Structure prediction request, 603 residues.
Amino acid sequence: MPPLRSKSRLDFLRCFQIKKKICMHHVFDLWEPKPRLFYSFRSPNSPSLASILHDVKELKSLHQIHANVITSGLQQNVFLSNRLLNACFSCDDSTTAEEIFRRMTYKNVVSWTIMVNGYWKHGCPFNSVNAFREMVSAGVLPNLVTIASVLPACCDLGLPKAGRSVHSYMIVRGYRANVYVDTAILDMYMKGGSLVDALKVFDSMSERNVVSWNAMINGYVQVGDLHGAMKLFKKMKHTGMSIDHFTMSILLRICAEMGCLIQGTLIHAHVIKYGFEKSSHVATLLMDMYGKCGNVEDASQVFDLSPCKDAVSWSTILSIFANLGNGHKAVELFDEMMAAGLPFDSVSLMEYLSLCSRLGALSQGKCLHGLMTKIGLETDTPVGTALIDMYAKCGNLSSARSFFNQMNIKDVICWNAMITGCGTNGCGDEAVGLFWKMNSLGFQPNNSTFLSILSACSHAGLVKHGFQIFEHMTDETTLVPDMQHFACLIDLLARAGHLHAAYQLVKSLSLEQDVGVLGALLGACKIYGEIAIGAEIARKFFELDLSDAGCYVLLSNWYAGLKDWNRVEMVQDLLRLKGLKKEPGCSMIDIGGSFHTFVFEDT
Prediction:
């Protein structure tokens, strides 16, 4: 095989002129100053093709070099072919990589490793595992890099047995693993849910780096052992191991899930100590942690001090204010965000539309609708669905209906949103009509569709239509009704005054422990004056260990309606004894872009 050598520009021109398959515009490309890659060939000390391939980032340049390799008769140079394979995966051209690999007469361990690793990194874990299997079958001994590449591919496929087989292969073949391979094995066992095996690997590691510790801490989080994760972090600190922003991210998620404000504040101190507060990702997790711990002041302070506010950080702080009942501040921040000219994509638009839905912020939702049109996302079905949901939840059903009718592409979720919107706005007949129209157009309703339409029938008192639709679900589809569907049926009967039928259905389905179903029945008994069934349900309430203040308030109101003041006082005493307090109800109204809040106490 002739040695790989540099070529002058004249040599390149001759190659392209001789081979008629190569287009002439490739020849002229060599004379342009823009592709510096080829311009470097003019120098007497020009790099080799293999060196140039290392820096290739554009597909056009890659194909030009590939053409030159073929015309130069160097396609069987394994070193150069391996560089070509690497360059193909770097340019997201796995098809060309497969073609080059298939035509290679000699493939070494590096060739196979590039394919295994390249497939995995480009989202083809099945091809990665298959390439590893073919490699072993061909008698090529994998190296540690190959093994470290195939293990995560096994995880992505959900094949823990395949991962264990690779680990066994290592042990049988006598590989001496390094920290990177050990971490990959550890991560494989954790993602497979095997904490015991992962812990064995971790304890046996002669060397650990920050990635190993992070993988083990995150593994504890994945199996729900948050206390174990915090304990391991303390052990990590005692060893003097350096901490990176991934460590901080994991710990902040733990504190958020546990609602542990004190521990979260300590982690915040570590964030400042190690200089991670400038990371927008860490700042967002800090805000989320404080928000889930109910500390809106510190969450707001982190947001104000954050040097880089992206769409995720804005969405997080807005959600915190909305979830903690500070709708005014959420709307003010929303207006600030719009004035800042933040770039929007489909995901951020859906998040902000959802936020407007929760706040009832119709004016802000309309601004987002205008922005959708401006940036060309009005035809995006998921975004359009979020817009329909926003209009419906803000009480503007006509705008929701108008946008729904003009949508060219609708999916089941979009139909569900419109049916739900009609139901919540008291248009039960229209919701029923939409349901049957959806079926006639060939859309297959899912469980959410039936929940939405049964709820709409319940609120509108359409008992006959509700049972008709329920029979359609059981007889005409493969869907199996769950307890939520039956709860909708019970609510449908109760709201229509069929309390005896509703209560019989509760008993037949063993729903006598379901607080939500019993509460709906008790409320209906109060409305229709059904004392016998109401008294029986009230007794069942006393038998349950309730932790919801609303249930005790409902029970108190029931006894107050019967003028049984002794029992009213007993329920109130129970409420105080358990330290429960019903949160005051809150109504918000948007008048001319200005929000007004009305709060009242329930008794």
About this structure: Strands lie at 585-591, 594-600. The chain has a mean pLDDT of 80. Residues 160-173 form the longest helix (14 residues).
